[in-house]
Write a structure and sequence with these properties.
Keywords: Transferase. Pfam families: DUF4290. It is a single chain. This protein starts with 15 loop residues before the first helix and ends with a helix. The chain is 61% helix and 0% strand. By secondary structure, the chain is mainly alpha-helical. The chain has eight helices and no strands. It is elongated, with a radius of gyration of 36 Å. The protein has two domains: 76 residues, no CATH class; 88 residues, no CATH class.
């Protein structure tokens, strides 16, 4: 009986020993034309054995890279892609630079900061009010998940004010339920003043018309 420990080491176990043996047989063929023809057949077989690779971008290129790895980087065939070197495959990817979030508020995530910037850019109105409410609610959920404790709305409002550099301020209200009323009242103050002025002007105009009509009737 022949044990696996006595057989050739599998360079990529996910392809199995059959494909490994086919690659070794391909390397032994005398001419480049024969090796290239067999390499193409092996690539097709590898694709059938691993159909999930077809969902990936440039999966054919990956299969040829895997074939070269299975051949221990020693395979003289015609390939539609350049073969990688040991050094290229061993090279470590560059370290990703993670976004730097505001000190103690990392648990809110980058998406919250992006939404805050979007809310600041919006003009005052229903859309801005709705977005601010969404931001505050999501901040509350993130806080509760990260800190595993209940947080009051006033804490969220203070954090929102600090993250927005005082440009989104809900600290004047008690809860999220009152946020829309708060913004509506603040945004409508000027409108109320202008409306009162318009109403007074209209009243004065109506009085003048009434007086003019009375004067005509007397005549």
């Amino acid at each position: 009986m022949e044990y696996n420990t006595q057989k050739t080491q599998l360079h990529m176990p996910e392809y199995g020993r059959i494909i490994q043996q086919l690659v070794e047989r391909c390397k032994e063929l005398p001419t480049k034309e024969e090796r290239s023809e067999m390499a193409m057949a092996i690539i097709d077989f590898m694709g059938q054995r691993n159909p999930q690779l077809r969902d990936e971008e440039n999966y054919k290129h990956k299969l040829w890279d895997h074939l070269f790895i299975l051949a221990e980087y020693d395979l003289d065939v015609e390939s539609p892609y350049p073969f990688p070197t040991r050094e290229q495959l061993a090279e470590k990817p560059k370290k990703m630079e993670y976004p730097k979030l505001q000190g103690d508020f990392k648990f809110y995530g980058k998406s919250i900061l992006q939404l805050i910037d979007k809310a600041i850019e919006l003009e005052t109105g229903d859309e801005k009010e709705a977005l601010i409410e969404v931001i505050a609610n999501n901040m509350k959920k993130s806080y509760n998940v990260y800190n595993k404790e209940h947080v009051t709305d006033d804490v969220i409002f203070r954090h929102l004010k600090e993250l927005s550099e005082n440009r989104l301020d809900l600290t004047g209200i008690d809860s999220l339920e009152k946020s829309k009323i708060y913004y509506t009242n603040n945004n409508s103050r000027n409108n109320k003043n202008s409306n009162s002025n318009n109403n007074s002007n209209k009243n004065q105009t109506n009085k003048r018309r009434h007086n003019n009509n009375n004067h005509k009737n007397r005549k």
